[in-house]
Amino acid sequence: MNPDIILPPQVAWASGAFANGPLIRKATRVGDLTGVFSDTLAWQQRDPNDVVYHVEMLDSTADAGALYVGVTHLNAGKIGDEFYMTRGHFHKQREQGEVYFGLSGEGLLLLQTEQGEARLERVAPGSVHIIPPFTAHRLINTGTETLSSLAVWPTVAGHDYAALAGGFALRVFASDSGWEVRHG
Description:
With 184 residues, this protein is mainly β. The chain has a single domain, classed as Jelly Rolls. The protein has 1 helix and 15 strands; from the N terminus they run βββαββββββββββββ. The chain has one helix spanning 40-45, and strands at residues 10-12, 17-19, 23-29, 51-58, 67-74, 78-79, 82-83, 98-104, 107-113, 118-123, 128-131, 135-141, 147-154, 170-175, 178-183. A 6-stranded antiparallel β-sheet has the order 3-4-5-13-8-11, with no helix packed on it. Strand 6 (78-79) and strand 7 (82-83) form a beta hairpin. The longest helix has 6 residues, at 40-45. It is globular and about 65 Å long. The mean pLDDT is 95. GO terms for molecular function: glucose-6-phosphate isomerase activity. Its EC number is 5.3.1.9. It comes from Lelliottia wanjuensis. One of its GO terms (cellular component) is cytoplasm.
């Protein structure tokens, strides 16, 4: 007797689209990103219903040892001169790491320790990013098309947005040469 062969969830690497799995979908809109962008007036003048990014993730058990797999699709755009970005977060359980894989588009991954030490990594198709424990992270789309990144993280990690209420130490703005980094 042959065992049943199950078709697991699939991801299209070029687009980050999932198939064959129970999905959770969440959109983050301009209005959800209070205090994230430096130009408050430009943020207020935008339609609060405009989607900045959306996340699709495979539904998973929240048991210890289980993993989430999801794709963030960060639209191209700016608020003022500052590029669209994700809200960014630490993990509630700070000792939990994460892995990002660049799928499409171009941008940056902003990483910051609890001590405020920040660095940027280029995100592009095929890039692999190991996010260490105790490190906040945020995607920034510096390109003209959607930046998509697949992530894998422990289901027990959680998200702590409040720890970054004062923002990240670095910000990325459009410039004549493409983009420039300024201290937050």
